[in-house]
Amino acid sequence: MTSPTTARQASEQGRVLADPTAYADNHRLHEALTWLRANEPVTWVDSPPYRPFWGITKHADIMDIERDNELWISGPRPLLLPAEAEDAIKRDQEAGIGLRTLIHMDDPHHRDVRKIGADWFRPKAMRDLKVRVDELAKRYVDRMVEIGPECDFVTDIAINYPLYVILSLLGLPEEDFPRMLKLTQEMFGGEDAEHQRGEGTTEDLMAVLLDFFTYFSALTKSRRENPTGDLASAIANGTINGELMSDMDTLSYYVIVASAGHDTTKDAISGGLGALIQNPDQLARLKGDMSLMPQAVEEMIRWSTPVKEFMRTATADTEVRGVPIAKGESVYLSYVSANRDEEIFDDPFTFDVGRDPNKHLSFGYGVHFCLGAALARMEMNSLFTELLPRLDSIELAGEPEYSATIFVGGLKHLPIRYSLR
C-alpha cells in the first residue's frame, strides 16, 4: 500500500489535470497522462486556484468509482472549478438560486429529475427525430459546398449543426440560437481567452449563468401557460411526487440540455473529422465501407473525449488502488486518460474506424451516463453518412487549434480545404 505521505507528494505530471492549457496541447497532455497511468495512477494534485484532489487516470478505477454512487457522490464537487467559484456556487445553492443540474445531483433526487427528460432520448424519440436530424445534416453539408473550397469546419459547421438539433428539440425559435451559442461558449470557455466573458472571473461566470436563467425563466412561464409539446414544455411542466420541479431545478435542466447537449457533440464531430483527415487510410477505409459508420462514430467519440472530467467525493474513508482516500476528499475522473488506457484498448493512440470492442468512457458510466448519448451518436452518424459519399478530397488548410479547458472542449478551429459534390 502506498503511504499517505508518499501519495500526497504532488507530481509535476499530475498538474496537467488542473492546467487548462494542457488540453490545448495533445502531445504534452498525453505524455503526462501516459506517465501517470504507468507510475502514479492515483495522484495527489495541489494546484491553486483549485482545491486539492486525487487524480484517477485508469479506466478500471474510474468505472469502479462510478459504479458505487453511494460511496462516491457528485453533489459537493461535481467538476473542477477554482475554489472561489466553488464557494460562490455553494452560497447560491444554499440561497436557492444556484445552478443545480443533473451532474450536481445524487440519488434519489437525481433519478427523479432525470426521468423528466429521459423519454425524449429513448429509441422511439430518436427514430421520430431522425428525419429532422438528416435534414439538418444535408443542410450543413450543402453549406460546405456553398462556402467552399475552404472553411473553418468548427465555426462554420460543427458548432451550428448540433446547436440547431438540440434547440429544435427544445422548441426554441431560430432567432434565439445565436444567443444560446454565445452563452454556451462563455460558460464552457471560461479558461479560454477567445471565448470567455470579460476576464473569465467568477463574477463573469455568474453573469453568464444569470443570463441563462433570465432567458429560461421567461421560457418556463410561457410553456406552463401554453405547453407546445416540445422538450421545453416537458421540462417546464415536469413534476416530482406530484409537485412541479423547483424553479432552480427547472432552469438548471434547460441549461444542461441547451449547452452540454450541443457543445460536446460539436467537439466530437470536429475531432472526428480532424482524425479522419490526419489518418487518410482510415478515411478511405470508411468511405469504402460505410457499414463501419457505427464503429467509426464510437472511435471519434473516444478519440475526442469532449467531457474531460467529472469529480466525485468520498462519503467514507476508503482507498483506490491501495492509496488511502479520506472521507470528504474528492477524486478527479480523467476520461481523457481512461480512453487511452493501454490495458483496455489495443494500440490506444491509433485511430481505428473499425475498433471493436470500444469501451470508451466519453459518456461516463453508471447512474450519470450521458442522457443524450443516443442523440449525439445519431447526429454524428447522419452528418458523416451525408458528407463522406459526397467528398472527393479533403486536407488541412492551416493548423488546428484546441480550446484551453479543464471540463468540456476540443477543437475550436479546424481550417480545411476540400472538394464536395
UniProtKB/TrEMBL annotation:
Pathway: Steroid metabolism; cholesterol degradation. Pfam families: p450. Its cofactor is heme. Keywords: Cholesterol metabolism, Heme, Iron, Lipid degradation, Lipid metabolism, Metal-binding, Monooxygenase, Oxidoreductase, Steroid metabolism, Sterol metabolism. Gene3D superfamilies: Cytochrome P450. CDD domains: CYP142-like (cd11033). InterPro entries: Cyt_P450, Cyt_P450_B, Cyt_P450_CS, Cyt_P450_sf. GO terms for molecular function: cholest-4-en-3-one 26-monooxygenase activity; heme binding; iron ion binding; steroid hydroxylase activity. One of its GO terms (biological process) is cholesterol catabolic process. SUPFAM superfamilies: Cytochrome P450 (SSF48264). PANTHER family: BIOTIN BIOSYNTHESIS CYTOCHROME P450 (PTHR46696:SF4), P450, PUTATIVE (EUROFUNG)-RELATED (PTHR46696). Belongs to the cytochrome P450 family. This is Steroid C26-monooxygenase. It comes from Mycolicibacterium chitae.
